[in-house]
Amino acid sequence: MLTAAQIRAARALLGWSQPALAAAAGLSLPTIVRMEGRQGPGRSAAANVDAVQRALEKGGVEFIPADKTSGAGVGVRLKGEPSA
User: Could you tell me if residue 68 is inside a domain?
Assistant: First the structure.
C-alpha cells in the first residue's frame, strides 16, 4: 500500500503539482489532497490508489517496498535508464 509520503515524494521527483497528478490519474483534486494528507491513501478506494500509482509509474517513478531484512522503509525513486 502506498503512503502519503511516497505520493508526495513521487510527485516532487516528477515536478508535478497536485492538479497535474489529479489529471494524470483521472481523479479529482480533493481526492489527491486527501490521499496526501494526514489520513493518507488508506481510506481511499483501492481503485483510486491504483490510479495514482499507475499515473506516477507512467510518469517515471518506481515505488520501493520496505525491506524487512535490512530494516529499510518504503521509498520512491526515478526509474533508471537500462545500462548498455
Answer: yes
The rounded distance, in Å, linking the Cα atoms of 34 and 44 is 8
* Cβ count near 53 (within 10 Å): 19
- SS3 letters across the chain: CCCHHHHHHHHHHHCCCHHHHHHHHCCCHHHHHHHHCCCHHHHCCHHHHHHHHHHHHHHCEEEECCECCCCECCEEEECCCCCC
CATH number at residue 43: 1.10.260.40
Q: Model-level pTM?
A: 0.88
Tell me the pLDDT band of 19, cut-offs 50, 70 and 90.
very high
Instruction: Kindly calculate the radius of gyration of the chain based on its CA atoms and give it in whole angstroms.
Output: 13
